[in-house]
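Shipment paperwork, digital attachment
Item: protein structure file
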Amino acid sequence: MNFPAELKYTKDHEWVKIEGDVATVGITDFAQRELGDIVYIDINTIGSDVAEGDIFGTVEAVKTVSDLFMPLSGKVLEVNAQLDANPELVNQDPYGDGWMVKISLTEKDSAGLLSADAYQALIGA
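Attachment content:
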């Protein structure tokens, strides 16, 4: 499995890439493997302020539906439009083309996020 060191991770299996006041969010390689083939992504929070820990959407796989939890507080600026027609991008490239949302951060405190090493320890990788 792949865990890029430049990203931060949550205990709920989301990843975050912070660039200035904007953060890109997706689910980890571990999460997409656990879910299996992803068939639909429902994110209808564009333009909404979402607090850290709140649900910002769902991922539907062949065998289950899973909530997506916001890793940091912010306003949802953009949803990855490619995922409407190609949700499998999350399986193929979870840290690249399979990103889910971009948010404008309302706070930059990322102290609650995990490093790649800490996340790997959490999942036993």
